[in-house]
Write a structure and sequence with these properties.
Blueprint: E1 11-14, H1 20-31, E2 35-40, H2 43-53, E3 58-61, H3 67-81, E4 86-89, H4 104-132, E5 134-139, H5 152-172, E6 177-184, H6 206-217, E7 227-230
Parallel strand pairs: 1-2, 1-4, 2-3, 4-5, 5-6, 6-7
Helix pairs in contact: 1-6, 3-4, 4-5
GO molecular function: oxidoreductase activity
Keywords: Oxidoreductase
Domain Ketoreductase: 10-190
C-alpha cells in the first residue's frame, strides 16, 4: 500500500479509464498500492476494467461533461479512500473534418469533453487535493502544439487544455499540487474508432504512459517536469 506521511493510503481518480491509457494508468497505480477510481460513460466496460485490476479498484459511470456528476463521484472517491492524491484527466473524443464540414454538434462534443470536461474534473477535485497536496496529470497531445488539416476541434481542445494546465501550475503550486501536461504522439489505443493490432507495435503503448506517470510521481518534490512530449522512437519511414 502506498501511504502519505500520516499513514493514509494514497489514491487516484482517473477519467476515461475503461480501456487504453486510462486503464493502464489505473492498473499501474493500483499495483503500486494506490486506491483507484476509474470513470467512463460505459458502465459495462468500466466495471469490467475495475474488476480486472482488482486491488479494490472502483469503476463508476461518469460523463465528464456533467459537472454535478463529477463533483458527486469525486466526493464518493474521497469518502471511500479518505482523500485524493492523484488526478489523471484522460477522457477525450475526436472528430476530424475540415472546419467547413465539421458540424456544430461535433465541435461541441470535442470541446465539451476534452476541454470543458477537463475543467469540470479538475474543479471538482481541487478542494480535496488542497487538503494534502498531490499531482494532476492532463492527457494532452502533440496536437496541442502542432495543428493539422481536419483537426480544428481536436487541435483547439488540446491547445486550450495546454493553456489551462499551465495556468493551473501557477494557481496550485503553493498548495503543494503539481500539474504536468503529458503530450503523446501516436498511441496504440481505441481512440477515434481505432482497433489496436500488431501493426501498432511501433506506436507508444498505453503501458508506456502509465510508466511515465509513475516515474513523474517519483520525482523529487522540488522538481516539476511541467510538459512532457512523448513520441514513438522509431516511426515508420515515409
Amino acid at each position: 500500500m502506498t501511504t502519505d506521511a500520516a499513514g493514509t493510503q494514497k489514491s487516484a481518480f482517473i477519467t476515461g479509464a475503461s480501456k487504453g491509457i486510462g486503464e493502464a494508468v489505473a492498473r499501474s497505480l493500483a499495483g503500486d498500492g494506490y486506491g483507484v477510481t476509474l470513470t467512463s460513460r460505459n458502465e459495462q466496460e468500466v466495471s469490467a476494467a475495475a474488476a480486472g485490476i482488482g486491488h479494490g479498484a472502483r469503476g463508476v459511470v461518469c460523463d465528464v461533461r456533467d459537472p454535478a456528476a463529477l463533483e458527486r463521484e469525486v466526493n464518493a472517491h474521497v469518502a471511500a479512500f479518505g482523500g485524493l492524491d492523484v488526478l489523471f484527466v484522460n477522457a477525450g473524443v475526436g472528430h476530424f473534418a475540415n472546419v467547413a464540414d465539421l458540424s456544430v454538434e461535433q465541435w461541441r462534443e470535442v470541446i465539451d469533453t476534452n476541454l470543458s470536461g477537463a475543467f469540470y474534473t479538475i474543479k471538482a477535485a481541487i478542494p480535496a487535493m488542497k487538503e494534502r497536496g498531490g499531482y494532476i496529470f492532463t492527457l494532452s497531445s502533440l496536437a496541442g502544439k502542432n495543428p493539422f488539416a481536419g483537426g480544428g476541434a481536436y487541435n483547439a481542445s488540446k491547445f486550450g487544455l495546454n493553456g489551462l494546465s499551465e495556468v493551473l501550475t501557477l494557481d496550485l503550486r503553493h498548495h503543494g499540487i503539481k500539474v504536468t501536461q503529458i503530450m503523446p504522439g501516436s498511441v496504440a489505443t481505441h481512440f477515434a474508432g481505432h482497433t489496436p493490432s500488431d501493426a501498432d507495435a511501433w506506436k507508444i503503448q498505453p503501458e508506456d504512459i502509465a510508466q511515465l506517470t509513475v516515474d513523474l510521481l517519483n520525482m523529487p518534490a522540488r522538481t516539476l517536469p511541467s510538459r512532457v512530449e512523448v513520441r514513438p522512437s522509431q516511426p515508420p519511414r515515409k
